[in-house]
Design goal:
By secondary structure, the protein is of the alpha+beta class. The protein has 16 helices and 13 strands. Helix 8 (256-306) runs parallel beside helix 9 (321-377), helix 11 runs parallel beside helix 12 (464-481) and helix 12 runs antiparallel to helix 14 (538-548). It is elongated, with a radius of gyration of 50 Å.
Length: 665
């Protein structure tokens, strides 16, 4: 399982091999917020695997969503139009449903009122012996026969528009005391009377006068099994039969036709809504395409312009806003091309001027150098003032020659003529040569140079001359700005990279100066004198040498806490760097010391090896060198580094005694 590519400034060594084993003791879990994910060797890979499994199928869709503005606009139009159609559909369906029910109720109440009046009129009609309406006569008929005839007669006028149900008083409840009335239930159209009339409606009709209504379902008896229950409006009223006894008459109006109409309206609204949504999405796609296509064309041309194809232009048609945008883009590209050509020409002239001046100055400088050497050699015969002038002249000529050499080297980098002569080299040899050359300056400054990680070979394919020039510049700068404190040179190798870090404990760097320090002729303190005769181009040339190798040259510093410069090179030429075996911020920085103190306070069982040494009276916070070689711990995984030995450049005994006395004070 591959890990995420680390940042070059934050990668530390020990990420492979047996990185899970800590030589300073068993691993302790960090229970601070986020510590378990950062330090937990067991849970972190499982969590990362789960996140990958969830994200992997979604990455193409997310990438397409983020990169396609046309898709986002169409999707937004789809969602908004769908929400509008749904809201409108609900409102329309609710209004239509309410209107249908109100119309049905009004018609049903009118028809039921007429039926109730007819039923009561028949019950109150005088008795007759014979006649064409003998079926309605009271003579010779009981209330039960009369009720059957009444239900059949009332239902015949409905023509399936309604059904009639007659229930005896108290049906569904206990019979009222002293009331005989109609016994049993009667209904038309195979309607189940007791199941079709709700109990609540029957109670309301039994306990009050007037007509009552409610919504229910018409249920049919088993004799007509093909009919399914249907929604209906039920209206009931208490009436009196031919004997004056109470009974309940109910009209059941089916809502099947209204339900079918409402379903038809729903289907129509859904179909029309889907059509409108699709139509709106198509319109949005077409409209956005007209705008996005020129934008995509402009983006493609801009990418080609950024790649150096300055002759690319947009195709302009019409006179609308898009055409004006294309014309403005083309004018911008033309002006940009002209400016870049002017800057390139100016840069070529500048490089040619620097190169020509550097070469032309060599001839008179050689003559002046010869004359200055003659004068310098004869200075013993001069008076003190003239002899001092001869010495100053020789020193400034040396600096002038160094400046000319640096200018020539810079001109080669600017012209792209710098060549890399890479071969396998051991960086330990390069570091030794650099330290040997810096020993006189270190003795003058009272600085001790320490070397860590040089017990095993540190091999890389590199140009020894350029690497030595970079390290010489870093070491000399560290000695010059180290305020007489120790300078630590650390070597490390891990994976496909090697690194050399130079750490000093001098004035350090202010925030933001770590990037400006590589600018040409830049100095943190303009008023500070150059005691070593530097030209101000050393770090600029050094960073160009690092880039020529495909490596990094980075700086870190804090005010009053010193600085660290790290050179990272690929172990094999043309191999891309993925990280550095040495952290850019050293372990003894203020931030790391604060974190170490917090960890020590949180974990009382922490060993002393986990704590950063405190500052020793203004001298280097590095602990004294152990007499046993290799006792100095290296702040990286020992499995990834070639070694962790320490070597100290020797100093004169007198100077060591003076420093010991100073420490005693």
């Amino acid at each position: 399982m591959s890990a995420t590519r680390p940042d070059p400034a934050d990668v530390q060594s020990g990420t492979s091999g047996t990185a899970g084993r800590d030589p300073r003791g068993p691993r302790r879990w960090n229970l601070r917020p986020g510590g378990l994910l950062r330090d937990g060797a067991a849970s972190s890979p499982v969590l990362r695997l789960c996140v990958r499994l969830v994200r992997r199928p979604l990455l193409p869709a997310v990438r397409l969503w983020r990169r396609n503005i046309q898709l986002r606009v169409v999707a937004a139009t789809l969602l908004i139009s769908l929400a509008v159609v749904l809201a409108l559909g609900f409102v329309v369906i609710a209004q239509v449903s309410r209107g249908l029910l109100e119309a049905k109720e009004e018609a049903a109440q009118s028809q039921a009122a007429g039926g109730f009046a007819v039923a009561q009129e028949k019950a109150n009609a005088p008795a007759t012996v014979d006649g064409p309406d003998a079926t309605d006569n009271k003579v010779g008929r009981d209330a039960s026969t009369w009720m059957n005839s009444l239900v059949k007669q009332l239902a015949s006028g409905g023509q399936t528009a309604f059904e009639v149900v007659a229930l005896g008083a108290g049906t569904g409840e206990q019979a009222l005391p002293g009331v005989q009335g109609v016994k049993g239930a009667r209904a038309s159209g195979n309607v189940d009377p007791t199941a079709s009339v709700p109990l609540g409606l029957r109670r309301a009709v039994n306990h009050a006068t007037g007509a009552f209504k409610t919504f229910s379902e018409i249920r049919y008896t088993s004799g007509d099994g093909k009919k399914e229950p249907a929604p209906a409006l039920v209206i009931g009223k208490r009436l009196s039969d031919i004997n004056g006894d109470p009974y309940d008459l109910y009209y059941l109006f089916p809502l099947t036709q209204e339900e079918e109409s409402l379903n038809l309206i729903k289907v129509t609204i859904v179909t029309a809504g889907l059509f409108v949504v699709v139509l709106l999405c198509g319109i949005a796609w077409l409209v956005v395409r007209q705008v996005v296509t020129p934008v995509r064309m402009a983006a493609g041309i801009a990418e080609r312009l950024s790649a150096g194809r300055l002759q690319e232009r947009m195709k302009v048609t019409g006179e609308d806003d898009i055409a004006r945008l294309g014309e403005a883009f083309n004018k911008m590209a033309q002006n940009l091309q002209n400016k870049i050509q002017q800057l390139e020409e100016l840069s070529r002239m500048q490089r040619r001027f620097v190169s020509d001046v550097s070469h032309e100055l060599r001839t008179p400088l050689t003559t002046v150098r010869m004359a200055a050497d003659v004068i310098h050699d004869a200075r013993v015969d001069f008076d003190p003032i003239t002899a001092r002038s001869a010495e100053l002249l020789a020193g400034q000529l040396d600096r002038f020659e160094s400046l000319l050499a640096d200018l020539l080297e810079i001109s080669r980098f600017d012209a792209g003529a710098a060549a890399l002569e890479a071969e396998p080299i051991d960086l330990r040899d390069v570091v030794r040569r650099v330290i040997d050359g810096a020993e006189p300056l270190a003795e003058h400054k009272g600085t001790r140079i320490r070397v860590l990680g040089d017990t095993q070979p540190v091999i890389a394919e590199a140009d020894a001359r350029r690497v030595e020039r970079v390290l010489r510049n870093l070491v000399v700068n560290a000695v010059e700005h180290g305020e007489g404190r120790d300078v630590v040179v650390r070597l490390a190798s891990a994976g496909g990279a090697v690194a050399v870090a130079v750490r000093d404990y001098g004035v350090g760097l202010k925030p933001g100066e770590a990037t400006r320090v590589f600018n040409r002729f830049w100095r943190a303190d303009p008023a500070r004198a150059r005691t070593t005769g530097g030209t101000g181009l050393g770090l600029s040339i050094a960073v160009e040498d690092a880039r020529l190798h495909g490596g990094w040259l980075q700086a870190w510093g804090e005010p009053g806490g010193g600085s660290q410069f790290r050179l990272t090179l690929p172990r094999t030429a043309d191999e891309p760097l993925r990280g550095s075996p040495i952290p850019l911020e050293p372990e003894d920085s203020r931030a790391n010391r604060a974190r170490a103190a917090a960890d020590a306070a949180a974990d009382a069982e922490g060993s002393t090896a986990d704590r950063t040494p405190a500052d020793n009276g203004g001298r280097s916070p590095i602990p004294p060198r152990s007499p046993v070689a290799g006792a100095m711990p290296v702040p990286a995984d020992p499995t990834a580094l070639p070694g962790n030995g320490a070597r100290v450049v020797s100093r004169p005994a007198e100077q060591a005694q003076q420093e010991d006395r100073a420490d005693g004070r």
